[in-house]
């Protein structure tokens, strides 16, 4: 069985978990607090970052994009119509562009700040009170990212084109964390809400909807498919 070192409030980790679910892969989950810098974990990944997948032969694959590329090459290619990567090179480039948007741009402008200030600081110790300025800036950026997703969802069948792809799962990973924390007002973004509802209804998403983070209760609508 595959083993994934992850944290439930890291979008990169959620992304890998959803991909594993889409391909029907069983995985053993180990929750890792990267700020603790455990010696045993650093032996797997000296950078101390997550996610880390222990693949066949307990070989560590490090980072969300390398992990997903590994899964695509070892699992996705055998799923044909269910593969999450396109065959056309320009379509593949668009999927990769949007993966980077949600795993890097949305992370740097929104997700990591809200997660750190609202959820992780109390766990990390010695980090001080939440930074109200960082929270305000991140919340202002949420709206811009939602507007972009709303446009994509309104003009395409799925975010990167006619079929669900890694781009949708990367976006869903990021927005599911914000949704868990009650940071999204979906009523203003109908196309984005309908897209997210489709993602939430997929079997691969059910473990995330059932999961609860210690010390942080989810928004009341978080687990509802129709919200």
Automatic annotation (TrEMBL):
Residue stretches making up the GST N-terminal domain: 1-79
Alphabetized InterPro entries for the sequence: Glutathione-S-Trfase_C-like (IPR010987), Glutathione-S-Trfase_C_sf (IPR036282), Glutathione_S-Trfase (IPR040079), Glutathione_S-Trfase_N (IPR004045), GST_C (IPR004046), Thioredoxin-like_sf (IPR036249)
Sequence ranges assigned to domain GST C-terminal in this UniProt record: 88-219
Record note on quaternary structure: Homodimer.
The protein's name in its UniProt record: Glutathione S-transferase family protein
Organism: Chelativorans composti
């Amino acid at each position: 069985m595959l083993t994934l070192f992850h944290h439930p409030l890291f979008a990169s980790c959620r992304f890998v978990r959803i991909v594993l679910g889409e391909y029907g892969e069983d995985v053993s989950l180990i929750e890792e607090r990267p700020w603790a810098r455990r010696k045993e974990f650093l032996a797997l990944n000296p950078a101390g970052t997550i996610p880390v997948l222990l693949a066949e032969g307990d070989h560590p694959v490090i980072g969300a994009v390398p992990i997903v590329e590994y899964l695509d090459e070892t699992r996705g290619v055998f799923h044909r119509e269910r593969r999450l990567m396109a065959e056309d090179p320009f379509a593949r480039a668009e999927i990769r562009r949007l993966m980077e948007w949600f795993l890097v741009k949305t992370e740097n402008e929104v997700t990591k700040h809200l997660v750190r200030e609202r959820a992780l600081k109390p766990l990390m110790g010695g980090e001080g009170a939440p930074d109200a300025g960082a929270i305000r800036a991140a919340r202002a950026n949420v709206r811009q990212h939602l507007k972009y997703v709303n446009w994509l969802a309104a003009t395409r069948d799925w975010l990167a084109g006619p079929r669900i792809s890694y781009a949708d799962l990367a976006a869903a990973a990021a927005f599911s964390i914000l949704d868990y924390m009650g940071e999204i007002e979906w009523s203003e973004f109908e196309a984005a809400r309908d897209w997210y509802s489709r993602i939430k209804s997929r079997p691969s998403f059910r473990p995330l909807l059932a999961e609860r983070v210690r010390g942080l209760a989810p928004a009341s609508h978080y687990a509802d498919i129709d919200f």
